[in-house]
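In the design runs reported in the main text, the only information available to the sequence generator was the tokenized backbone. The following block is the verbatim input for one such run; it is reproduced so that readers can re-run the procedure and compare outputs position by position.
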């Protein structure tokens, strides 16, 4: 690869080698397989003594371009593009863990990842212990002789709790554990866990990497050595990213930096507005001075991210009334869209957890999660404000 340039430049200028024409934008290579010049070439490409594409389940110029760019932005040697974020989470775990291994996971984790650990890995003899982001002092004593990996997310979904990545990778190094970080909320623009010592980074590219709510995709990134195993699993299992989606995502990365700047400045303004609203019981945003880990957030992240969570006075009923009163913003479980999306995690993304599990994961019945989009901040605030006012009268009909 060429010498790395600045984030914005790599995100735009890294492109796959063109074959024939001189298109300025890389075309979509919608092909299942690739032809060889000769039987000897086919033999050499299969033997990996010669570079070349064989079959799109293995590789394709579009997914190569997407991954090469994402690797440059995250500081990874190699990576694998996947058909969803969950495929990336699953690959990162099964390429490293074996029956009998033990996994340490914070409870403050994406709902489906929680289910993967509790419902699927447990069936295959991979055990786990849940730890708490807010009690890092208790983690070390949960490490067993069979512990092989710490899998974590920072900031967490939806509670926006943080983990000190430098502390975490030091702890893991001391005990010879792999560290896998889901960097979905921060994106490579705000935080690069591999540069802080993590072994693998996974992404749900569905979120900010696409940034426009158009597709489902993911990626696993890390060192050449670990990715070799991930690649083997991916080729055999087949959670392949389609060429068209890879093409779309490579284009999306071109604007990631400017989008994140605006997402984050809108989110900070919204958090500041909510903090001043007397109907709001609590607000969480990593860059608010009231966030318990604001110092860590400012050390570890370039900006505070696009997610804000808050609680209105009046519990779940009030939260539901508020959501029903929104006029502009979208009521949807997705996040990382140019459109502001609003979610009630307790009854949607985290509804498959028991009430006790939700409580331990920091998901209260009144919590509302906002993924702040790119609309004008005045319009975002105005819609929330009218819905807060309307939901108050719905709570106390006069
Ligand atoms: C959405 C999400 C995932 C799963 O990604 P999909 O693309 O929906 O499969 C994993 N982790 C986090 C933090 C997410 O927000």
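Verbatim output:
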């Amino acid at each position: 690869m060429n010498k790395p340039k600045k984030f914005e430049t790599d995100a735009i200028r890294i492109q796959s080698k063109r074959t024939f024409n001189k298109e300025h934008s890389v075309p979509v290579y919608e092909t299942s397989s690739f032809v060889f010049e000769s039987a000897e070439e086919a033999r050499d490409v299969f033997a990996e003594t010669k570079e070349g594409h064989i079959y799109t389940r293995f590789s394709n110029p579009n997914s190569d371009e997407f991954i090469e760019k994402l690797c440059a932005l995250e500081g990874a040697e190699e990576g694998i593009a996947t058909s969803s974020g969950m495929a990336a989470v699953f690959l990162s775990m099964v390429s490293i863990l074996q029956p009998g291994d033990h996994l340490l996971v914070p409870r403050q984790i994406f709902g489906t990842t929680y289910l993967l650990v509790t419902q699927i890995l447990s069936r295959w003899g991979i055990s786990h212990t849940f730890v708490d982001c807010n009690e890092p002092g208790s983690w070390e004593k949960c490490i067993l002789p069979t512990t092989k990996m710490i899998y974590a997310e920072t900031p967490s979904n939806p509670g926006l709790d943080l983990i000190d990545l430098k502390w975490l990778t030091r702890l893991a190094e001391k005990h010879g554990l792999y560290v896998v970080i889901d960097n979905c909320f921060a994106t490579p623009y705000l935080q690069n866990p591999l540069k802080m010592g993590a072994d693998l980074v996974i992404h749900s590219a569905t979120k900010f990497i696409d940034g426009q709510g158009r597709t489902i995709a993911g990626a696993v990134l890390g060192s050449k050595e670990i990715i070799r195993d991930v690649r083997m699993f991916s080729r055999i299992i087949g959670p392949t990213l389609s060429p068209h989606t890879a093409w779309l995502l490579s284009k999306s990365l071109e604007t990631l930096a400017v989008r994140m700047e605006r997402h984050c400045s809108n989110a900070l303004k919204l958090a500041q507005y909510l903090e001043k609203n007397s109907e709001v019981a609590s607000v969480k945003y990593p860059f608010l001075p009231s966030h318990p880990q604001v110092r860590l957030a400012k050390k570890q992240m370039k900006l505070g991210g696009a997610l804000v969570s808050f609680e209105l006075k009046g519990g779940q009923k009030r939260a539901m009334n508020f959501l029903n009163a929104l006029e502009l913003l979208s009521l949807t479980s997705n996040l990382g869209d140019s459109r502001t999306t609003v979610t009630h995690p307790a009854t949607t993304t985290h509804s498959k957890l028991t009430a006790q599990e939700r409580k331990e994961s920091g998901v209260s019945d009144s919590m509302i999660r906002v993924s702040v989009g790119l609309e004008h901040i005045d319009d975002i605030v105005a819609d929330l404000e009218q819905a807060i006012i309307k939901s108050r009268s719905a709570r106390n009909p006069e």
